[in-house]
Each structure stands twice: as C-alpha cells, then as structure tokens.
Amino acid sequence: MELKAEILKPYTEEARKNFIVEQNHKQGYEIKESETSLEAWGYTTEELAQKEAERISMLSLTAADVERAIYKAKGIDFEDVIALVEQSSPPGERAEFVSEGSELTNSGEESVAAGAPAIDIKALKIELKANNFYRGNPYIDAVGSLLGFTKQQLDEFFETNDYTKLRE
User: Fold this and answer.
1) Which residues fall within 8 angstroms of residue 158, CB to CB, at 6 or more apart?
2) pTM of the predicted structure, to 2 decimals
3) Of 51, 53, 27, the residue nearest 40 (C-alpha)
4) Are 85 and 143 spatial neighbours (Cβ–Cβ below 8 Å)?
5) Is 41 left (phi over 0), alpha (psi -120 to 50) or beta?
6) Which string of DSSP letters, residue by residue, matches 111-156?
7) Which H or E run includes 68?
8) Angle, CA of 112, 123 and 115, to the nearest 5°
9) Pair type for strands 37-42 and 96-97
10) E strands within 60-127?
11) pLDDT at 88
12) Rounded mean pLDDT of 145-155?
C-alpha cells in the first residue's frame, strides 16, 4: 500500500470528516491516523493488478457452460477438443505441465507444436470431467490457444458466461 493523501494536524473536525468522506467513502482508501496527520492509504497499481489477476483466476463456470460455449463458438464439443489436441501433439510425445503453466515434452525440451502448447491428453481428459472450470487452470489457456482464443477473450467469457466473447 502507498500513501495517497494526507492532512496535517492540526485540522478541524469538519476537515477531518470531509477528508474521510472523500478518501475513504468515495475512493475506498484506508484511513490511518498518525501523531502528525490523518492519512489515506491505497493499493499501488501493481497490487491492484495482482488482486485483479487473482480474482479472474478464481472465476469459474460449469463444464456444461464451457462445452456449450465451445460448441456455439467453434462447432465442436469436448470429444472434438481431445481429437484436436491429439492431432496437434507431436507423434510419440506427451507433454506435461510443470510449474507456472510452462510445458515440457517427455524428453525435457520445450514443446512448440504448431505454435500451440503441447497438452498431456490423459490429464486433459481428467480435467474435462470436472464439474467446474476455473479460469486460472493452465489447461484453459492451453486449449483456448489451440482453439484460437486470446487470454482476453477467455477472461471476458469467464467473467460474463457469454460465448459471443469467444467469437470477437
């Protein structure tokens, strides 16, 4: 957090109330009183971006919502997605997700199958059985990329559950 505004002592009770209304009630800053001033503290741009990223990663939709949207946007269902993933993977290689959503092949080399991340098909089949799909799951980005969806489109889709966001 960073200091956003302050008024120095001495201040009137009216100035104190106005400061609290303006800084806390209207802008949402946390008010702290020190020996010398009344301070308004708020999140930095980086902290706000991190909080928003965390919020978006926790958005969820049901499996039916996701499969229906893929069908309406691309005309395919989960079985077709699995077939597409199988076609896009290099023959005889199976990639696995490691830390932070990066992909490695079984040989330990980075995968670059037709510009899309390689996906562990067995693990994907398990993921597709889930009742809820969370935006932060790395398979969402990997399959989304394979289907031609941008991260922004996926974010908007998970935010609204509006499949048309996947067509734009």
Assistant:
1) 56, 59, 60, 61, 135
2) 0.69
3) 27
4) yes
5) beta
6) P-BTTB----HHHHHHHTT-SEEETT-HHHHHHHHHTT--HHHHHH
7) helix 63-74
8) 15
9) unpaired
10) 60-62, 96-97, 103-104
11) 82
12) 95
Please state the φ and ψ torsions of residue 62, each to the nearest 5 degrees.
-75, 160
CA gap 118, 146 in Å, rounded: 9
Specify which residues 33 forms β-bridges with: 38
Residue 6 identity (one-letter amino acid): E
Structural Rg of the chain based on CA atoms:
23
Q: pLDDT tens digit string along 64-116?
A: 999 999 999 999 999 999 999 998 876 555 444 433 444 433 333 333 334 54
At 11, which amino acid appears?
Answer: Y
**pLDDT digit string (tens) for 40-52?**
999 999 999 999 9
- Sign of the dihedral through C-alpha 70, 76, 77, 82: negative
Residue 4 has pLDDT above 60, yes or no: yes
Burial group, residue 152, by CB count within 10 angstroms (0-12, 13-18, 19+): exposed
